[in-house]
Amino acid sequence: MNRALTLVVVVLLLSACASNKAKKPSSSVPVPSATKTQARAETDLPQAQRYRDTHDGGPAAPATDIARLVEPVPKHEPRARYGNKSPYSVLGKTYAVMPDAHKYVERGIASWYGNKFHGYMTSSLEPYDMYQFSAAHKTLPLPSYVRVTNLDNGKSVVVRVNDRGPFHENRLIDLSYAAAVRIGVWPKGTGLVEVRVIEPGKSGAGDDLPPQAPAASNAARIFLQLGAFADKANAAQVVRQIERQGLGAVSIVTTRINDREIHRVRLGPLQSVEAADALVERIERLGLGTPRVAVDD
Predict the structure, then answer these.
(1) Does CATH place domain 53-197 in 3.40.50.11440?
(2) Residues near 34 by Cβ (< 8 Å), separated by ≥ 6?
């Protein structure tokens, strides 16, 4: 009887050893990269949980001489596998990625982002490096190359757009720390800029040349556009609403697009980005919609 029990115990021990060996992964089977898995999961987290720091800023002690950095050379690239889903929604608003950014030019307010996001994944799943000349845009295809010109001082920089944002109301583009330093948007925080797509291989066409530096002037160039109408009577009705609320100087600017007259209702000029932000909030509270920023020379 004892001998039989001994044999049973030996058999069970051998079976357990064999089972453990079977569970051990083979060295020939590739193990998924922890870095890649973490990066993908990171972009799925809510903004409030994604980053180590709660507040953004520049480096405590700049480790790189921005003046020595070389701007990217525009080249043809396939669309990124991630970050080009269209439409997509953020903070309750829906955006459509441009199918084609050919001849895209727009003026507006630039902001910048830095140390809080450094090393984390962008929307295209490339790590954000605040010492590279890059940017975030809500609707340009990823990646895209654009020239960003500061309309206050004429300085410009070529950046590679590889991220989505900025999702603050009335911001056109979010520059990397290096790009913001290069054109003087840092440390101020915001700046009035022109964003112009650069199409690789189109040299000589003029699309990849910076606009001429604006003449030195203290004149405000920020307006809030409250609507664009084919019927001037509708535009006039909005003007009367704004006048009743006492929000400031309001006017109708008429332009012709494709043989059609378009009547834009504009409020301003305003003295600063901060004044524009405050007025946008006031207009929204009054239930008059969300105006967009328009920048003129």
Answers:
(1) no
(2) none
CA distances from 156 to 34, 147, 194, 271 (A): 39, 7, 9, 23
Quick check: 33 pLDDT over 60?
A: no
Q: Is the dihedral of CA 131, 133, 134, 135 positive or negative?
A: positive
Is it the case that residue 224 has pLDDT exceeding 50? Answer: yes
Question: Residue 105: helix, strand or coil by DSSP?
Answer: strand
Provide the mean pLDDT of the chain: 81
Measured CA to CA, the distance from residue 223 to residue 201 in angstroms comes to 35
Domain ranges of the chain: 53-197, 222-295
SS (H, E, C) 57-93: CCCCCCCCCHHHCCCCCCCCCCCCCCCCCCCEEECCE
Cα–Cα nearest to 73, from 145, 128, 14:
145
* Per-residue pLDDT tens digits for 162-172: 999 999 889 99
Quote the tokens at residue 105: 């030019």
Block residue for tokens 């913001």: 180
Residue 84's alpha-carbon distances to 112, 143, 147, 251, in angstroms, are 21, 9, 21, 37
Question: What is the second-level CATH architecture of the domain 222-295?
Answer: 2-Layer Sandwich (3.30)
d(Cα 70, Cα 93) in Å, to the nearest integer?
Answer: 36
b (16+ CB within 10 A) / e for 46-67: eeeeebeeeebeeeeeeeeeee
Which residues, other chains included, contact 131 with Cβ-Cβ below 8 Å and sequence gap of 6+? 63, 64, 66, 69, 176, 177, 178
